[in-house]
Fold:
Amino acid sequence: MKKILIALMLSAGLHAGGDLPEVEYVYADDPQTSPFYIGAGLASDYERNSYDYYDVDTGYTNISVLAGAAVAREGSLGLAIEGRVSWSLDEYGVDAASIYLKPEIEVGKGFTTFAVIGYQNITTYEYTYDALGLGLGGAYLFTDYIGVQVDYIYSYIAEDEFGITPEYANLTASLIYKF
Structure:
């Protein structure tokens, strides 16, 4: 009997203090995708060599592989770092390895525009050039993980030791996968 009386007194004491605080429930948000992405695509390279007496314009096709990661995001603005390697499908084409800083603006659901600026190491024939790559592009995600990316990048190269100022530009279309 003593045990029942003590239990009733404790129970009454708990309820006598007034209303119990409301329980707050915490709900998990939808899982966020990883900041990492990879891609592969086809590109069309443009090369112009300006000699003293004529210009030579040529075009090449290459395969491009890219990988990157978003390093900052605030609302619709973002910043990513992206690395690329491309190999020419043509005998005398352009091979390149590049790393870019990529500021992004999300302009609609799944659609992002971006700029790129970064270092390029370009190899053509037996010559290798260090270049500054500047470009613009856009990406569209069909799902949370799969999308396409298209960009145009111009390569700024200083005059070489032979007095030639080569110009390179690249238009790339890639299929991307976000982790």
